[in-house]
Write a structure and sequence with these properties.
The chain is of the alpha+beta class. It contains twelve helices and 20 strands. Helices cover 39% and strands 19% of the residues.
Length: 395
């Protein structure tokens, strides 16, 4: 344990703790000036802007009247669910969405360390324990202010944050590379399709696979699928939910049929099971993989799905209606090039996703031992040296 760590309140560790307006920020339909970050937008320790609410300038000004979030501020979810924490980074303007609290670490508190401390299993259990007992579990701002935290010297905080941050940075870099590869495939596919004069139907090149999922398999819910990205990086290994599901295999194309305008189309990175609101699509021949994913991720296909979907409040695009979508079929040589590019790219993306899962598991194992002082890290400017020492101590 740290010989000179100090126990204090979160209020004392921060220069500022403020909550958000207790109403939903109106969403703009024009170019967003900023984004309101609610609980759904706090994902894996960062802000998922695809789940944040785009807002105009007057709304942004009103929602930041108490404080304008800045670099290294933390956003803590205090309800539905209790506990997730994201760090503000980059130049994108953000304001608080509903059920969140803004934390501004003080001069003796490192932002990344405080985020790690608050997301440690012990802190998460404590916050959930405080929140239990009400109809809707939640933390009051006064609960947040009085949370106890153990702060080692600032140099120790920074060393711990450096180790965890290096792991997080590697994961984020993997995500950026994956997104870039997917964009390259989409761009190449659009060019190949736009230059083609031959047409066929979606049903000619791929089909829906309806094999019941096994409850022991990893589960992918509709909320796990990102909007507008074909890279799927999140799922759960819990055995819940236990309801009906579909089995999928690596490299299957998954399509969220509920509210298709969200553009939830992705390539399966693992073998698992998914919600039955997700269609499992498999090319009839391997050479059609590139054409299938490029077509189904295109805006033209999404527009078609929206047009043929049924239901007012919760529209769904069923296979019988979307399978007739007319697609352009490139000549055999171009089709082969498209497929080779897409197949190689997504196999590489799957490898990066697996690596990120391993890094995240290492981080989660290190985190409680680092923040409790059970494992010490060298005060070094070399993150790799720190990570190596921490993992060796963990072993």
């Amino acid at each position: 344990m740290w010989s000179n760590g100090r126990s204090t309140t979160l209020s004392a560790a921060c220069d500022l703790i403020v909550d958000c307006p207790h109403r939903t920020a109106p969403e703009t339909e024009t170019e967003p000036f900023g984004y309101a970050v609610g609980t759904r937008a706090v994902v894996a320790g960062r802000i998922d802007f695809s789940a944040a609410r785009p807002v105009d300038e007057p709304t942004y000004v009103a929602w930041t009247a108490r404080a304008v979030p800045k670099e290294d501020d933390l956003i803590l979810c205090r309800e539905a669910p209790v506990g997730p924490v994201a760090r503000v980074s980059g130049d994108t303007r953000v304001c608080l969405g509903q059920r969140t609290v803004l934390l501004r670490p003080g001069p003796e508190t490192d932002s990344r360390f405080l985020q790690a401390l608050l997301t440690s299993p012990r802190a998460q259990r404590h916050m959930r324990g405080i929140a239990e007992g009400s109809t809707v579990p939640h933390l009051n701002v006064s609960d947040v202010r009085t949370l106890r935290v153990l702060l080692p010297p600032l140099s120790e905080q920074r060393a711990i944050a450096s180790v965890l941050g290096a792991l997080d940075d590697k994961v984020r870099n993997n995500e950026r590379v994956s997104d870039s590869l997917a964009d390259v495939c989409a761009s190449y596919g659009d060019q190949a399709i736009s230059s083609s004069t031959m047409t066929t139907s979606l049903a000619h090149v791929c089909e829906v696979v309806r094999t019941a999922g096994d409850v022991t398999q990893p589960y992918l819910g509709l909320d796990d699928m990102p909007k507008g990205s074909t890279v799927i990086g999140h799922w759960t290994r819990d055995q819940d939910p236990t309801g009906a599901s579909w089995k999928f295999e690596p490299m299957d194309v998954l399509f969220g049929k509920l509210r298709p305008y969200f553009r939830k189309v992705g390539v399966a990175p693992i073998e698992g099971r998914c919600s039955r609101e997700i269609l499992v699509i498999r090319p009839k021949e391997q050479r059609y993989f590139g054409l299938t994913i490029t077509t189904m991720a295109s805006q033209r296909f999404i527009d078609h799905c929206v047009a043929v979907s049924t239901g007012t409040r919760m529209p769904r695009a069923e296979w019988r209606d979307i399978s007739t979508f007319a697609i352009s079929a490139p000549p055999p040589a171009e089709l082969e090039r498209l497929n080779a590019l897409a197949t190689s790219a997504y196999r590489y993306i799957i490898g990066l996703t697996a690596e990120s899962k391993t890094l995240t598991a290492i981080r989660d194992a290190l985190l409680p031992k680092l923040v409790s002082g059970q494992i010490r890290v060298p005060l070094s400017n070399d993150p790799e040296e720190q990570i190596g020492a921490a993992i060796e101590a963990l072993a």
